[in-house]
User: Fold these one by one.
Assistant:
Number 1:
Amino acid sequence: MTAAELAIETSQVEPSRTKRLKAATQDAHKVLDGFIMSAKPFESRENFAKFVQTQYLFHRDLDAFFFNDTLAELLPDLKGRRRLGFIEQDLADLSTTVPASSATHFSHDDAAFDLPEALGWLYVVEGSNLGAAFLLKDAAKIGLGETFGARHLAGAPEGRGLHWRTFVAALDAVELTAEEENRVIAGAEAAFHTVHDHAKRVMV
C-alpha cells in the first residue's frame, strides 16, 4: 500500500487534509531536510547562496500557481504568499547569479492545470514558510536577515501562525473526491522530490 493509499484509507479517522498530507509525506520531507542540512547552508554565505538558488528553482517551478484564478478563489491572499521576488532580491544581496534552469514544471498558460496536484505543491511551499523561522535564526549567525540576504524567510505581517492557519483552513475546505485526494498527496510528494533534485544539483 502506498503512502497516498494509506492516507485515503485513514481519511475518515483524520478529517484534516493538511494533517493527512503531513503524515503521507513525512518520509520525503525528512530525507530532504537531512540532505539540505548536510550541505551546511548556514556555515557560510557561499553555502547559503546555494540554498537560495535551490529555493529559486523550486519557487520558479510553481510560480504560475500564484496567478491562477481558480486557486485564487479557493486560497486567501494567494498572490501575497508569493516569495519568488524576495528570493531574487536575496540572490542580488548575495551577489549570486540566478541559476540556469530548464522549463518550469508549470506554465501560466498550462491547459492541463490540475487542481489537486497544485494544492499538493502549494502545501509544501506554504509549509516551508512556517518552518522558516528556525532558518532565519540560523541565517542571522552569518549576518543575514529579513532585510538583507534572507528576505524570503521572513514571516507574514500577521505572524506565521495565523498565516499558516488561514491557509490550512482554506486547503482543508476544498471539496475533492477520493481519487483527487490521491493526486493532492502525489503532488506534495512530487514537490518534495523536485526540491531534493534541485538541491542535489546546486548544493553539492
Number 2:
Amino acid sequence: MKKLSYLLVFIIALSCNHDKKQNQKSTLNSPSIIVLGTIQDAGSPHIGCSKKCCDSLFKNQNFTRKVVSLGIIDPQENKTFLIEATPDIASQMKQLLSFSVLNNKKIPNGILLSHAHIGHYAGLMYLGKEAMNANNARVYAMPKMKQFLERNGPWSQLVFNGNISLKEIYNEQKIKLSNNISVVPILVPHRDEYSETVGFKIIGPSKKCLFIPDIDKWNKWEKDIVKEIKAVDYAFLDATFYSGKE
C-alpha cells in the first residue's frame, strides 16, 4: 500500500437509507463500511525514515494514523467483518466491534485478507496463544494465501491450535457475508512472492464499493480502472508515490 498523506475515518452507508456520511454509532442502522486506516504497511512514522514529516511524528506520535483497513458492518444481522489483519488490528478490531449490538462480542464474524505482505496479514499473530487465543476466527483467503498460512510458521500454528479457521475464496466468485452484504475478490497485479493479490468489491443492498489496497501499475491490470470506478458508488484505491525513486 503506497503512502497516503492523511487518515480518513468515516462511515459510508451501503443502502439508500442513509446516503450521508455517518460518524456516530447511534445513527448506524443500515449496512455500512468504516475506514479503519489508510497508512502504508509499516505504519506511521515509517521505520528508518529521517525526513521532516517523520521526525515530527516520532516526537509526537499521532495514534489515529493506522495501517490500511476497512470494516464492514451489518447492524441488522449484528455482523461485522474486517478487511486486512494489520499490525494495528487490536485498535481497529476494537473500533469495528464498538458498532456491534452485543457488547460481549470480541472478534468479527470474519477477516478477509488481500495478500501476504506484512501490513495485510501480520495482525493474525495477535489471534494466537500469546495474545487473544482466539477460537476458530474465520479468515477468508485466496488459494495460495491459504496454503501459505497452512504451511509456514508461525501462521500454521494458528491453524493447528484452532485459533483461526481458513475459508478458501476464489477470483471473482461472490462471498455472501450476510443477507445484506456480499464481497467479490478480484485479482490484481502485484509482487506476489507468497500469494495472490486481490482487491474486493463490496456489494450492499443498493450501493457498491471497490477496495484495492495494493497494485503495481494500473496499466498492467487487464481491467479498465476508470470503468471499474464508474461501476461503483465508492472507491478506495492504492495511492501513488511522490516519485519513482521512493
Number 3:
Amino acid sequence: MCSMEEDNTLGNKQEKWIKRYSSSHKILLVGEGDFSFSSCLANAFGYATNMVATSRDPREELLSKYTRAEENLKDLEDLGCNILHGIDAHTMSEHAFLKLKVFDRIVFNFPHSGFNTVFREHDSWLIRRHQDLVRGFLRSAKNMLAENGEVHITHKTAYPFSKWEIEELAEKEGLSLVEKEAFYRSDYPGYENKRGDGMSCDLAFPVGQSSTLKFNKASEKLIEKKKKKQGIRESVAR
C-alpha cells in the first residue's frame, strides 16, 4: 500500500495526498499497463471512486500479458474505480462513458507507440510516430479538462527521448507548461512501469532521467501573445 504525504481535514471529509495527486481530484489515467500505478493511487486514497483507469489493451489481452494485472484490477474494483479497456488515447474524449466528464488530472505515464524491430528510438520515423501518439492524446485530453485541470505526461528526458519535444507539441495544442518535476518511481510504491510490447511486455524498463510535465489550458491572452510573437518572427524571416 502506498504512503500518503499529508492529510488535510476539510469539514468532515479527509483529503489524502500522494505526491502530486489528491483524493479530491477527479483523475483519468490513460494507457495503463498492469494498472499498478492506478492501484497505488487508489490504495493511498483508501478508495477510487474519484478515478477512471483505462488501458489500450482489451481486458483478455491485458490479463495474458501482465502477471499482476488481475490482482491490481480486483484491487481497483473493490475500491470503486471505474475501469475501461480498449481506450484509444486519440479518441477517448468521444467515448460514451467519458465524453460528458471532466477531470482535474489526466495522466499518461511513459507514452510509447510500440517497439520496432527495424527502427531504433533515435530514428526520425519512430520519433514522429511517438509524437503522433502524444499529439493525439493532448488534443483529446484538452477537451476533458476541468477548469484549472492539468494534463500530466511522465517521460524520459535524456536523448533520444528529448527529441519528442513534448512541450512544443503541447503548446501547439493550446496547452501551457505549468511545471516540470523530476519523477522517481520509488515515490509510488507498488508501481511497475512495463515495456508493454513484445515478448518482454511484462518486464520493467529503466526509468533513468525522467520528469512529469504538467500542462493546463493556455489562456486566450497567452495564446494571442504567442501568435503575435510568431508573426513577428515570420516577418523578420521574410
